[in-house]
């Protein structure tokens, strides 16, 4: 944090030649300590979060790399203009990173001696993408301000810029994360919600990250952009509960269209929009679709059918895009502050795919 944020008090302590009692010493030290803490409490740049990120703040790179925001936004904009789907892919990278070991860019590491990459986990294999865009951003930032901007912060900024480019809300991204020195494929397999998880399981996985039901429903609303593979929802079409029948909560006409491109076998990688109305637009049609049984994934539709509390939120967001946007900003900032590495922990990687 820039030293200018700290305003040290003048003449707090008495002259060294002035005799003081022990009680006077303690009083002086206490006052001095409180005065040193006061700027932290009042400074608008220091955002205190309840999930282990008291020293992340949006202006972190204002002096050390003033063009950081511009560089990230420019490269993300170029990538999304080339392929609209990339906006959802970059947003998803941030999610899948934060749910494993916190928001520390562990998802970007390739396998190497001592590291088994999270890219090979069940939720990520043949699915997670956008690494080349992150590489391009990191390369540009290393030229502009070497050893300064972390890969974890790049993921957070790219997620925000992708959302805005798709028509979603803007938010100030708290920054100052550092990069992990390892990955956890076990954590990736265990912690990331799966398309066929029950609602209680999904709630538990979010709760373990410090995220509540409001955050859950809101953040899954990011499925308003992007695509999912046939293998992620096939069971809904043919054998939802093991009795050979489709999911009764799935609209029949919608199911028929899905079956045309997602057969009982084969076509595992065939892609379908998670919001068939406006797959490239960050809006509230995802929630509107759930109201009529046209959520693509079981983990989507279950938000409407699984509990009264999640149902009320789906109905609220379907009726009021502004309410969805406002809460999305709060929830994704909260998610972005899951146990980040700060201070002297971790490192600033030169290459996001490997430790220094």
Automatic annotation (TrEMBL):
Binding residue positions for Ca(2+) 2: 224, 275, 283
Known cofactor(s): Ca(2+); heme b
GO molecular function: heme binding; lactoperoxidase activity; metal ion binding
Protein name listed in UniProt: Peroxidase
EC numbers on record: 1.11.1.7
Organism field: Zingiber officinale
Record-linked InterPro entries: Haem_peroxidase (IPR002016), Haem_peroxidase_sf (IPR010255), Peroxidase_pln (IPR000823), Peroxidases_AS (IPR019794), Peroxidases_heam-ligand_BS (IPR019793), Secretory_peroxidase (IPR033905)
Domain of life, per lineage: Eukaryota
Similarity remark: Belongs to the peroxidase family. Ascorbate peroxidase subfamily. Belongs to the peroxidase family. Classical plant (class III) peroxidase subfamily.
Catalytic activity: 2 a phenolic donor + H2O2 = 2 a phenolic radical donor + 2 H2O
Disulfide bond entries: 65-145, 98-103, 151-352, 230-262
Entries under CDD domains matching the protein: secretory_peroxidase (cd00693)
């Amino acid at each position: 944090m820039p030293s200018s944020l700290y305003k040290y008090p003048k003449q707090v302590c008495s002259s060294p030649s002035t005799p003081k009692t022990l009680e006077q010493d303690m009083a002086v030290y206490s006052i001095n300590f409180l005065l040193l803490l006061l700027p932290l409490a009042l400074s608008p740049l220091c955002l205190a979060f309840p999930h282990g990120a008291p020293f992340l703040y949006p202006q972190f790179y204002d002096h050390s790399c003033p063009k950081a925001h511009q560089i990230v936004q420019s490269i993300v904009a170029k990538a999304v203009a080339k392929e609209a789907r990339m906006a959802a892919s970059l947003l998803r990278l941030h999610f899948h990173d934060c749910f494993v070991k916190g928001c520390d860019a562990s998802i970007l590491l390739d396998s190497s001696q001592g590291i088994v990459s999270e890219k090979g986990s069940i939720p990520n294999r043949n699915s997670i993408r956008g690494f080349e865009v992150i590489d391009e951003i990191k390369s540009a930032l290393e030229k502009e301000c070497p050893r300064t901007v972390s890969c974890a912060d790049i993921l957070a900024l790219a997620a925000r810029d992708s959302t805005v480019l798709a028509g979603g809300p803007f938010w100030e991204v708290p920054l100052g994360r550092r990069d992990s020195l390892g990955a956890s494929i076990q954590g990736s397999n265990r912690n990331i919600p799966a398309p066929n998880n029950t609602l209680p399981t999904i709630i538990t996985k979010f709760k373990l990250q410090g995220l509540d039901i409001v955050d859950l429903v809101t953040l899954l609303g990011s499925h308003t952009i992007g695509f999912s593979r046939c293998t992620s929802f096939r069971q809904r079409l043919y054998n939802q509960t093991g009795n050979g029948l489709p999911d009764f909560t799935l609209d029949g006409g919608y199911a028929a269209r899905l079956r045309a491109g997602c057969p009982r076998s084969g076509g595992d990688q065939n892609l379908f929009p998670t919001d068939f109305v406006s797959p490239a637009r960050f809006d509230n049609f995802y929630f509107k679709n759930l109201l009529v049984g046209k959520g693509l994934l079981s983990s989507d539709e279950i938000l409407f059918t699984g509990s009264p509390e999640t149902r009320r939120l789906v109905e609220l967001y379907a009726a009021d895009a502004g309410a969805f946007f406002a809460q999305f900003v709060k929830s994704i900032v909260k998610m972005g502050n899951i146990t980040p590495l700060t201070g002297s922990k971790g490192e600033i990687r030169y290459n996001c795919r490997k430790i220094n």
